[in-house]
Design brief:
mainly beta; about 475 residues; 15-stranded mixed beta sheet; Immunoglobulin-like; Jelly Rolls; 3 domains
Length: about 475
Amino acid sequence: MDKLMLFFCILLSTQIFSESLVIEKKFFPPKSTDIYRYVPFDVPDDVVEIKVSYSYDRKKHTVDIGIFDSNGIGKKGFRGWSGGSKSEFIIAEHNATAAYLPGPIYSGTWQVILGLYQVEPSGVDIKIEVEFRTSSANSFAGPRFLWNADQVLESNTRWYKGDLHMHTNHSDGKQTIEDLVAYAKENQLDFLAMTEHNTCSHHFEIPTYANNEVLLILGEEVTTTQGHANVWGLPQGYWIDFRINRNNSINDIVRDAHSVGALFSINHPFGPCGGCYWNHSDLEDYDSIEIWNGYWDPTDYLALQMWDRLLQQGKRIPIVGSSDSHKKQDPIGKPTTHVYASNLSQKAILTAIKNGRAYITKDISPTAIEFSAYLENTNDSAMMGDILNVRKQQEVLFAIAISGCKQGKVNVICNGRKIISKNISQLKNGMLEFSHIIVKDSYFRLEVEDDYDMIAVTNPIYVDMK
């Protein structure tokens, strides 16, 4: 049963006329993967600021929130999503709570969107309060800078290191964009991809912290009930619609990302949090998999095994690793993705990731890995992500160089089997060379580990028979 209450008051002390609206609704558990429900309300003329709050029994249920303006519940009307991280938010023309988009307060019907993630069978009672203001003390929050996605911070071809998955106060993180950029500078990370849950509000704050040391990449973590995925390289303010329903499949979301030149990467496929486990079995044409999320644990090992099975099936999907940092205690750069790129720009970094020219280390340590394959008496060679074409029964030579890591062992994995395992302490100057006779299309990748932890994982070198 719905209950609607409307009342008016005049705030004499500030000369602000305020209209307040209270809506109470009851929702039952969704019967399909379309878990989103909409609560409409009308915005009068001359409103300059809207404040929305909601409440329910958080001990029993999990309900997320966002909002669309009178332009409808599509991309044009999207004004923000804070998930379950905020119980209230404000939107004004020049100011908005982090996770929401400032802009004109159009009159007409707006829609609160609720994500019914966990609702008990007896249903959840939700109270939504909306306050309209015709004059706002918070009407200006400083300039909004346009983003230059084509900036090149360094022109050298080399290994660049960074983090591709993190959260700030624009979703459920405890730090700010300024905090993360400062940490990256201090710890000599070269790039960061900012990936907030289901919103693009951070796109307009990021330019404030643009600098000549750390490349910042605009992203979004598409967060669904059947798994999460990062989208990197979005145009400023471009929102990826995360709502899975009959009109928007996971493959539609991938196509949307690709339509603007962005990459789509599966996150933590065996993550233990609610909705983190990847269960979109029909996914097509994605660009990479995050097999290492935060500190190495059994779920990362499961992701590594899943990826290796895909490689054995001939699906050459690159891998990355990311911190998924939400707070200072879980810092960015643990793990770190190292990318061999032609320069330090968004285009070069993302192109290298898509091409598999990357490896992962457990942190921002000096551990560095070189891995190459070549044919004797020829100029034919390959590095991580490359394909080396050979004849059947031809011998391929491989060279490994590991620096900044004195302990543990390096394992060579070929077609799902460990073919070499050597203690790093026994390698001369961290160098290892070996050869392999090719009898079928193959891949070769490296794992560096000690008795307690994974230290590094590389993308493969592929060897194909002509």
